[in-house]
Amino acid sequence: MNKLYIVRGLPGSGKSSFVRNSYKMAYEDWFEADMFFESGLTGEYKFNRDLLPHAHTWCFYNVLRTLNADMNCWVSNTFVRLWEMESFLNIGEKLNREIDIEIIEVKTQFYSIHNVPENTIERMKRNWEELTPEMKEKYKVMVIK
Questions:
Q1: Which residues of 26-60 are buried (b: 16+ CB within 10 A; e: fewer)?
Q2: What span, in angstroms and rounded, lies between the C-alpha atoms of 90 and 62?
Q3: DSSP category for residue 6
Q4: What are the DSSP calls for 77-138, one per residue?
Q5: CA terminus-to-terminus distance, the chain
Q6: CA distances from 22 to 18, 30, 97 (A)
Q7: What was the pLDDT predicted at 110?
Q8: Which is nearest to 109 in space by CA: 40, 31, 5, 15?
Q9: Which of 19, 41, 45, 68 is the most core-located residue (most Cβ within 10 A)?
Q10: Are 64 and 91 in contact (CB under 8 A)?
């Protein structure tokens, strides 16, 4: 059974660093919407708010493709609102098989490498939704502080 690791946290919480130090490149893959905005040649990050829906679609279909290839996958995004994880939590239905899902919340605080404005981070903090008791029962949950 394939495993999907869903990593959530505010900008600058250390999501990418946690995944970078956790996944095994030979057997797993990793995607986040921010990768959509990185230049393949230079790695330069050029965020465009208008393309954000496309970035999240790109992220989802890369995760879907990876799981369909019988590999484990990591996805790290803010996932501030619980509905933002919904397509990933139901990804097994798209694949017609069970996927083992683990939710990892990263709650450390570094700095935003993508220069997310502080007022945006504060708004995200106010909008943060905690996992429901049902989610905590259904999925393995890890909190990194």
A1: eebbbbbbbbbeeeeeeeeeeeeeeeeeebbeebb
A2: 15
A3: E
A4: E---SGGGGHHHHTHHHHHTS--EEEEEEE------TT---HHHHHHHHHH--PPPHHHHHH
A5: 29
A6: 6, 10, 25
A7: 67
A8: 15
A9: 19
A10: yes
Average pLDDT per block of 10 residues along the chain, 145 residues long: 96 91 83 91 88 96 96 97 98 96 90 77 94 97 95
| Cα dihedral 101/12/125/128 (nearest 10) | -10
Q: What is the DSSP string of 19-68?
A: HHTT--TTTEEEE-GGGGGB-TTT--B---GGGHHHHHHHHHHHHHHHHH
CA 53 from chain centre, in angstroms, equals: 14
Distance separating alpha carbons of residues 44 and 34, to the nearest angstrom: 11
Backbone angles phi, psi at 68, to 5 degrees: -65, -25
Structure token digits, residue 21: 């130090």
pLDDT at 42: 84
In the prediction, which pLDDT does 101 show?
98
